[in-house]
Amino acid sequence: MATKRTLEQNLAFVRAKSGKPKTEKLTSAAQQLALPLWPDAVRGVPNAVLRGALFTVSQKREMFKDLTPVAVVDGIEISIKNDRLNQHDLDLFEMLLHVQREQPLGSPVHFTAHSLLRELGRGTSGRHHKELQNDMARLIGSVVKIHWTAERKTFMGSLVERAYIDEQTDHWVIEFSRDLMTLYSQGHTWIDWDERKALGRNNIAKWAHGFYASHAKPFAYSVDTLWKLSGSASPRNEFRRKLQAALQELLELGALDKWEIDDKDLVQVQRKPSKSQLKHLAAKVIHKRG
Fold this sequence. Notes:
The protein has about 290 residues and is α+β, with helices and mostly antiparallel strands. The protein has helices at about 5-20, 30, 45-50, 85-100, 115-120, 125-140, 180-185, 195-200, 205-215, 225-230, 235-255, 275-290, and strands spanning about 40-45, 55, 65-70, 75-85, 85, 110, 145-150, 155-160, 160-165, 170-175, 190, 220, 260, 265-270. The longest helix is centred in the last third of the chain and has 18 residues, at about 235-255. About 30% of the residues are buried.
Protein backbone atom coordinates (compact mmCIF):
# COMPACT_ATOMS: atom_id res chain seq x y z
CA MET A 1 0.00 0.00 0.00
CA ALA A 2 1.39 3.39 -0.99
CA THR A 3 2.19 5.77 1.86
CA LYS A 4 0.65 9.23 1.90
CA ARG A 5 3.06 12.10 1.45
CA THR A 6 3.17 14.81 4.10
CA LEU A 7 2.73 18.46 3.16
CA GLU A 8 6.49 19.00 3.31
CA GLN A 9 7.07 16.01 1.01
CA ASN A 10 4.45 17.29 -1.41
CA LEU A 11 6.09 20.70 -1.42
CA ALA A 12 9.45 19.12 -2.22
CA PHE A 13 7.80 17.11 -5.02
CA VAL A 14 6.20 20.23 -6.54
CA ARG A 15 9.45 22.19 -6.31
CA ALA A 16 11.31 19.37 -8.02
CA LYS A 17 8.81 19.25 -10.89
CA SER A 18 8.89 23.02 -11.30
CA GLY A 19 12.68 23.17 -11.09
CA LYS A 20 12.58 25.11 -7.81
CA PRO A 21 15.22 24.08 -5.26
CA LYS A 22 14.03 23.54 -1.68
CA THR A 23 16.43 26.09 -0.27
CA GLU A 24 18.63 28.71 -1.77
CA LYS A 25 21.56 30.54 -0.23
CA LEU A 26 20.11 33.86 0.81
CA THR A 27 21.83 37.15 0.25
CA SER A 28 21.99 39.55 3.19
CA ALA A 29 19.16 41.57 1.62
CA ALA A 30 17.03 38.43 1.25
CA GLN A 31 17.75 37.39 4.85
CA GLN A 32 16.30 40.69 6.03
CA LEU A 33 13.05 39.81 4.27
CA ALA A 34 12.86 36.24 5.54
CA LEU A 35 10.21 35.37 8.10
CA PRO A 36 11.38 33.99 11.45
CA LEU A 37 12.07 30.26 10.98
CA TRP A 38 9.77 28.46 13.43
CA PRO A 39 9.51 24.66 13.97
CA ASP A 40 7.14 22.53 11.92
CA ALA A 41 4.86 21.89 14.93
CA VAL A 42 3.89 25.55 15.30
CA ARG A 43 2.72 28.46 13.17
CA GLY A 44 4.37 31.87 13.55
CA VAL A 45 1.62 34.50 13.60
CA PRO A 46 2.00 38.30 13.95
CA ASN A 47 0.63 39.51 17.30
CA ALA A 48 -1.52 42.16 15.64
CA VAL A 49 -3.42 39.37 13.86
CA LEU A 50 -4.19 37.62 17.17
CA ARG A 51 -5.09 40.53 19.45
CA GLY A 52 -8.38 41.73 18.08
CA ALA A 53 -11.22 41.29 15.62
CA LEU A 54 -9.23 41.23 12.38
CA PHE A 55 -10.15 37.53 12.17
CA THR A 56 -13.51 37.28 13.94
CA VAL A 57 -15.27 34.35 15.60
CA SER A 58 -18.42 34.98 13.56
CA GLN A 59 -19.57 32.70 10.75
CA LYS A 60 -21.47 35.64 9.26
CA ARG A 61 -19.40 37.68 6.83
CA GLU A 62 -19.90 41.43 6.68
CA MET A 63 -18.82 43.54 3.73
CA PHE A 64 -17.24 46.94 4.41
CA LYS A 65 -17.32 49.39 1.50
CA ASP A 66 -14.76 51.66 3.19
CA LEU A 67 -11.94 51.10 5.63
CA THR A 68 -13.81 50.35 8.86
CA PRO A 69 -12.22 50.12 12.34
CA VAL A 70 -12.50 46.82 14.22
CA ALA A 71 -11.90 46.19 17.92
CA VAL A 72 -8.30 45.58 18.99
CA VAL A 73 -6.16 45.92 22.15
CA ASP A 74 -4.60 49.25 23.09
CA GLY A 75 -1.57 50.29 21.08
CA ILE A 76 -2.88 48.97 17.76
CA GLU A 77 -5.53 50.29 15.38
CA ILE A 78 -6.98 48.01 12.70
CA SER A 79 -9.36 48.80 9.85
CA ILE A 80 -10.59 46.52 7.08
CA LYS A 81 -12.22 47.04 3.68
CA ASN A 82 -14.22 44.48 1.66
CA ASP A 83 -14.91 40.97 3.03
CA ARG A 84 -14.68 40.46 6.79
CA LEU A 85 -12.29 37.65 7.73
CA ASN A 86 -12.86 34.94 10.34
CA GLN A 87 -11.10 31.99 12.01
CA HIS A 88 -11.62 29.79 8.95
CA ASP A 89 -9.58 32.33 6.97
CA LEU A 90 -6.96 32.50 9.72
CA ASP A 91 -6.38 28.74 9.46
CA LEU A 92 -5.49 29.20 5.80
CA PHE A 93 -3.40 32.34 6.41
CA GLU A 94 -1.35 30.59 9.12
CA MET A 95 -0.76 27.59 6.84
CA LEU A 96 0.37 29.79 3.94
CA LEU A 97 2.79 31.69 6.19
CA HIS A 98 4.16 28.35 7.35
CA VAL A 99 4.98 27.36 3.77
CA GLN A 100 6.45 30.82 3.01
CA ARG A 101 8.86 30.79 5.95
CA GLU A 102 11.47 28.79 4.04
CA GLN A 103 12.24 31.61 1.61
CA PRO A 104 12.22 35.43 1.42
CA LEU A 105 8.95 37.32 1.30
CA GLY A 106 8.01 38.09 -2.27
CA SER A 107 9.41 34.80 -3.56
CA PRO A 108 6.84 32.46 -5.18
CA VAL A 109 5.47 29.81 -2.82
CA HIS A 110 4.67 26.44 -4.42
CA PHE A 111 2.27 23.77 -3.15
CA THR A 112 -0.54 21.46 -4.22
CA ALA A 113 -4.08 22.28 -3.16
CA HIS A 114 -4.64 18.65 -2.22
CA SER A 115 -1.76 18.57 0.29
CA LEU A 116 -2.72 21.97 1.72
CA LEU A 117 -6.35 20.91 2.24
CA ARG A 118 -5.24 17.72 3.97
CA GLU A 119 -2.93 19.67 6.29
CA LEU A 120 -5.84 21.99 7.13
CA GLY A 121 -7.97 18.97 8.03
CA ARG A 122 -10.43 19.66 5.21
CA GLY A 123 -11.88 17.47 2.50
CA THR A 124 -10.25 17.18 -0.91
CA SER A 125 -13.28 16.91 -3.21
CA GLY A 126 -13.96 19.27 -6.10
CA ARG A 127 -16.21 21.31 -3.80
CA HIS A 128 -13.40 21.76 -1.30
CA HIS A 129 -11.00 22.86 -4.07
CA LYS A 130 -13.52 25.52 -5.16
CA GLU A 131 -13.95 26.64 -1.54
CA LEU A 132 -10.18 27.00 -1.27
CA GLN A 133 -10.20 29.32 -4.29
CA ASN A 134 -12.90 31.45 -2.64
CA ASP A 135 -10.98 31.47 0.63
CA MET A 136 -7.84 32.59 -1.18
CA ALA A 137 -9.80 35.29 -3.01
CA ARG A 138 -10.90 36.71 0.36
CA LEU A 139 -7.32 36.95 1.65
CA ILE A 140 -6.30 38.65 -1.60
CA GLY A 141 -9.31 40.95 -1.81
CA SER A 142 -9.65 42.15 1.79
CA VAL A 143 -7.63 45.31 2.39
CA VAL A 144 -6.19 45.53 5.90
CA LYS A 145 -4.77 48.59 7.62
CA ILE A 146 -2.79 47.99 10.82
CA HIS A 147 -1.36 50.99 12.69
CA TRP A 148 0.96 50.76 15.71
CA THR A 149 0.29 54.01 17.59
CA ALA A 150 3.50 54.29 19.65
CA GLU A 151 5.83 53.37 16.76
CA ARG A 152 3.77 55.40 14.26
CA LYS A 153 4.09 52.60 11.70
CA THR A 154 1.35 51.33 9.40
CA PHE A 155 0.85 48.29 7.19
CA MET A 156 -1.86 48.61 4.56
CA GLY A 157 -2.53 46.03 1.88
CA SER A 158 -3.73 42.49 1.21
CA LEU A 159 -2.59 39.63 3.41
CA VAL A 160 -1.89 37.59 0.26
CA GLU A 161 -0.85 39.51 -2.85
CA ARG A 162 -1.69 37.08 -5.66
CA ALA A 163 -2.15 33.43 -6.61
CA TYR A 164 -1.62 31.34 -9.76
CA ILE A 165 -3.32 27.97 -10.28
CA ASP A 166 -2.66 25.11 -12.70
CA GLU A 167 -5.81 23.03 -12.31
CA GLN A 168 -4.42 20.20 -14.46
CA THR A 169 -1.53 19.54 -12.09
CA ASP A 170 -3.15 20.91 -8.86
CA HIS A 171 -0.09 23.18 -8.64
CA TRP A 172 -0.56 26.53 -6.87
CA VAL A 173 1.84 29.45 -6.64
CA ILE A 174 1.16 32.34 -4.26
CA GLU A 175 3.05 35.51 -3.40
CA PHE A 176 3.08 37.68 -0.29
CA SER A 177 4.00 41.34 -0.27
CA ARG A 178 7.44 42.08 1.17
CA ASP A 179 5.72 44.71 3.32
CA LEU A 180 4.19 41.87 5.36
CA MET A 181 7.50 41.84 7.22
CA THR A 182 6.25 44.95 9.05
CA LEU A 183 3.77 42.76 10.93
CA TYR A 184 6.56 40.49 12.20
CA SER A 185 8.82 43.37 13.17
CA GLN A 186 6.21 44.32 15.79
CA GLY A 187 6.19 40.89 17.42
CA HIS A 188 4.82 37.42 16.69
CA THR A 189 3.67 34.29 18.53
CA TRP A 190 4.19 30.58 17.95
CA ILE A 191 0.79 28.87 17.78
CA ASP A 192 0.66 25.14 18.53
CA TRP A 193 -0.83 23.78 15.28
CA ASP A 194 -2.07 20.45 16.71
CA GLU A 195 -3.90 22.30 19.48
CA ARG A 196 -5.54 24.69 17.03
CA LYS A 197 -6.61 21.84 14.73
CA ALA A 198 -8.01 19.92 17.72
CA LEU A 199 -10.42 22.81 18.37
CA GLY A 200 -12.23 22.01 15.11
CA ARG A 201 -14.97 24.52 14.35
CA ASN A 202 -15.08 26.10 17.81
CA ASN A 203 -14.20 29.58 16.59
CA ILE A 204 -14.35 31.23 20.01
CA ALA A 205 -11.92 28.63 21.38
CA LYS A 206 -9.63 29.15 18.38
CA TRP A 207 -9.70 32.91 18.84
CA ALA A 208 -9.07 32.67 22.60
CA HIS A 209 -6.27 30.15 21.97
CA GLY A 210 -4.40 32.64 19.76
CA PHE A 211 -5.30 35.69 21.84
CA TYR A 212 -3.97 34.31 25.12
CA ALA A 213 -0.95 32.65 23.48
CA SER A 214 0.12 36.10 22.25
CA HIS A 215 0.43 37.37 25.85
CA ALA A 216 3.40 36.31 27.97
CA LYS A 217 1.37 37.16 31.07
CA PRO A 218 -2.35 37.44 30.17
CA PHE A 219 -4.20 40.47 31.50
CA ALA A 220 -7.64 40.18 33.09
CA TYR A 221 -10.17 41.30 30.47
CA SER A 222 -13.88 41.74 31.07
CA VAL A 223 -16.31 39.45 29.25
CA ASP A 224 -17.63 42.56 27.51
CA THR A 225 -14.16 43.50 26.24
CA LEU A 226 -13.49 39.98 24.94
CA TRP A 227 -16.92 40.00 23.27
CA LYS A 228 -15.87 43.11 21.34
CA LEU A 229 -12.29 42.01 20.65
CA SER A 230 -13.47 38.69 19.20
CA GLY A 231 -15.90 40.39 16.80
CA SER A 232 -18.69 38.08 17.95
CA ALA A 233 -22.12 38.60 16.37
CA SER A 234 -23.83 36.69 19.22
CA PRO A 235 -25.73 38.51 21.98
CA ARG A 236 -23.49 39.29 24.94
CA ASN A 237 -25.04 36.72 27.29
CA GLU A 238 -24.81 34.00 24.66
CA PHE A 239 -21.17 34.90 24.02
CA ARG A 240 -20.47 34.64 27.76
CA ARG A 241 -21.82 31.09 27.81
CA LYS A 242 -19.84 30.12 24.68
CA LEU A 243 -16.68 31.73 26.11
CA GLN A 244 -16.95 29.65 29.28
CA ALA A 245 -17.25 26.47 27.21
CA ALA A 246 -14.32 27.55 25.02
CA LEU A 247 -12.05 28.29 28.01
CA GLN A 248 -12.91 24.93 29.53
CA GLU A 249 -12.02 23.23 26.25
CA LEU A 250 -8.66 25.05 26.23
CA LEU A 251 -8.07 23.91 29.82
CA GLU A 252 -8.79 20.28 28.94
CA LEU A 253 -6.54 20.59 25.89
CA GLY A 254 -3.67 21.81 28.09
CA ALA A 255 -3.50 25.25 26.43
CA LEU A 256 -4.52 26.91 29.72
CA ASP A 257 -3.58 26.02 33.30
CA LYS A 258 -6.52 27.75 34.96
CA TRP A 259 -9.38 30.12 34.21
CA GLU A 260 -12.25 31.78 36.03
CA ILE A 261 -14.72 34.64 35.63
CA ASP A 262 -14.73 36.60 38.90
CA ASP A 263 -17.53 38.57 40.54
CA LYS A 264 -16.52 41.67 38.55
CA ASP A 265 -17.00 39.71 35.32
CA LEU A 266 -13.27 39.74 34.66
CA VAL A 267 -11.80 36.70 32.90
CA GLN A 268 -8.73 35.54 34.82
CA VAL A 269 -6.47 33.18 32.86
CA GLN A 270 -3.24 31.40 33.77
CA ARG A 271 -0.97 29.68 31.27
CA LYS A 272 2.71 28.78 31.09
CA PRO A 273 4.56 31.28 28.88
CA SER A 274 6.80 29.96 26.11
CA LYS A 275 10.61 30.10 26.41
CA SER A 276 10.74 33.24 24.25
CA GLN A 277 8.01 34.85 26.37
CA LEU A 278 9.92 33.99 29.56
CA LYS A 279 12.94 35.78 28.10
CA HIS A 280 10.71 38.75 27.29
CA LEU A 281 9.37 38.87 30.87
CA ALA A 282 12.90 38.64 32.28
CA ALA A 283 14.06 41.47 30.02
CA LYS A 284 11.18 43.65 31.25
CA VAL A 285 12.19 43.04 34.87
CA ILE A 286 15.82 43.94 34.12
CA HIS A 287 14.66 47.07 32.27
CA LYS A 288 12.56 48.19 35.24
CA ARG A 289 15.43 47.63 37.66
CA GLY A 290 17.76 49.58 35.40
